Amino acid sequence: MSAEPTPHVAVVGGGVAGLVAALRLAGGGVRVTLLEGSPKIGGKLQVSEIAGLPVDEGAEAILARRPEAVDLVRELGHGGDLVHPGTTTASILSHGALRPLPSGQVMGVPSDLRALAASQVLSPAGLARVPLDLVLPETPRGDDVSVADFIGARMGREVVDRLVEPLLGGVYAGRADRLSFESTLPAVAAAARGHRSLINAVKGVRAHAPADPGPVFATLTRGLGRFPHLIADAVTAAGGEIRTSATVRELRRTPDGWRLTIGPTRDPEALDVDAVVVACPAPPAARLLAGEVPAAARELERIETASMALITLAYPASAFRRAPHGSGYLVPSVEDRQVKAVTFSSVKWPHLRDADPGIIVARASIGRVGEEHTLQRSDEELKAAAMTELSVTCGVAELPVEARVTRWGGALPQYDVGHADRIARVRSAVAAHPGLAVAGAAYDGVGVPAVIANARSAAGRILEYLESRGDENDGQAREAEGTRP
Ligand SMILES: Cc1cc2nc3c(=O)[nH]c(=O)nc-3n(C[C@H](O)[C@H](O)[C@H](O)COP(=O)(O)OP(=O)(O)OC[C@H]3O[C@@H](n4cnc5c(N)ncnc54)[C@H](O)[C@@H]3O)c2cc1C
């Protein structure tokens, strides 16, 4: 009997999701070809130098309390490059001044009323409204509800505007009146099913946190943007192929598997494979699935994305009258400023400060969902907006020695009300097509560890399918042998 050829799987997209799926598949003994449309791998994880320091242009921190990302760094042999933030204190710009983020909160939802009062983030009226949560009857919420509707009903709108939305803004650049309570605050939402009061639900979440959980976040000394390259090296070492500048334009079913059309329309290339993992953001995934899985494509099309720009400024340390002491600050949209958050990278990451104590690097972000017009400005205008923010709020009185603008179009998928049901519908439509799986930030969490988990399970489903197909072929071959005259 002739040996079965090794199955060939294509992975579309070379961000963390695609790379992790490719690694799992290559480790599962199949032939893998990863196709990345842009000239470089990594997607939202990119690093480049500013003032001689490696500073991330996109994602910079991995949650260390979930195992997937830090464990993968260690498995790849780079555990020694992991470093943790030098401080976890952060501020909120509220009523015109920087206020400490109150202790006792979970993603901005407060549970310690004294700490909340001491922080002065809320107005006296806003503060007085919060404890009503303890006496109000249960707030009905059905299967899902917006963050603003639920938390606003329990604690008042100021908690939403001045605490929860700015914190969620750091993850989704989204609006609390559209984001799903169930999908964006899953731990709080689950606890709130068992408590009438949201304050008590948050206390419950905190009580269940491990006593000594260790550092919350980690990064790599040469930037988190190195992470995709470490994964890619492991993919190629396991025999996988990684192609860049290879945009997949079409996906079609064939009698034996799938045909991908790659490259420019005038010079297309066809690649026939046994199975495919579509690991690109929702808009291109919708376009690729439109022909064969229109039901999934229609759902993915409806996932909106937020665009943003990160302006990285390298100042001489003397530019700050007082050296910044926290990791940065968040700016609620009700403050009506152009910048929505500032990270003091040199304070948050001591390895950057140690590499050059004479430089303070700050990263300012601009742009929320539906505010694309704010990004239709020149790089010089965006740099000026970021410098003005640092001058007004932190008294910075000098120009940066270097400034860099990174634009992220369609950067962050919005997990709007009903997101979990939408993703269930996408998955069930995709599952009807053997040898097809989807992965990435649009599905079960935008953070890097969640994306890793979801990419591994997508690759796992493909391996299971290929195995079952192999068993079926073996069975048919044995049957054919048995019936041979
Ligand atoms: C500015 C910013 C800061 C962030 N900060 C953090 C952070 O600190 N911590 C954290 O955990 N998360 C952070 N995130 C979120 C996290 O980085 C992303 O959710 C995650 O990296 C997404 O990975 P992905 O592989 O799903 O998608 P992507 O990184 O978007 O990768 C998808 C890839 O698919 C490619 N592609 C698209 N269409 C095609 C096609 N047709 N053919 C071939 N290739 C295609 C793209 O070029 C891209 O490289 C941040 C996100 C942004 C934008």
Pick out its properties.
5-stranded parallel beta sheet; single chain; EC 1.3.3.15; globular; 21% strand; cytoplasm; 485 residues; protoporphyrinogen ix oxidase, domain 3; 17 helices; alpha/beta; FAD/NAD(P)-binding domain; Coproporphyrinogen III oxidase; Polyamine Oxidase, Chain A, domain 2; oxygen-dependent protoporphyrinogen oxidase activity; oxidoreductase; binds flavin-adenine dinucleotide
Describe the structure.
With 485 residues, the protein is an alpha/beta fold. The protein has 3 domains: 186 residues, FAD/NAD(P)-binding domain, CATH 3.50.50; 115 residues, protoporphyrinogen ix oxidase, domain 3; 109 residues, Polyamine Oxidase, Chain A, domain 2. The strands form 5 sheets. The chain has a 7-stranded mixed β-sheet, sandwiched between helices. A 5-stranded parallel β-sheet has the order 10-2-1-14-20. Strand 1, helix 1 and strand 2 form a beta-alpha-beta unit. Helix 1 runs parallel beside helix 10 and helix 8 packs across helix 9. The longest helix is centred in the C-terminal third of the chain and has 36 residues. The mean pLDDT is 95. The structure holds flavin-adenine dinucleotide (FAD). Flavin-adenine dinucleotide (FAD) binds next to helix 1, strand 15, strand 19 and helix 17. It is found in: Cytoplasm. Belongs to the protoporphyrinogen/coproporphyrinogen oxidase family. Coproporphyrinogen III oxidase subfamily. Pfam families: Amino_oxidase.
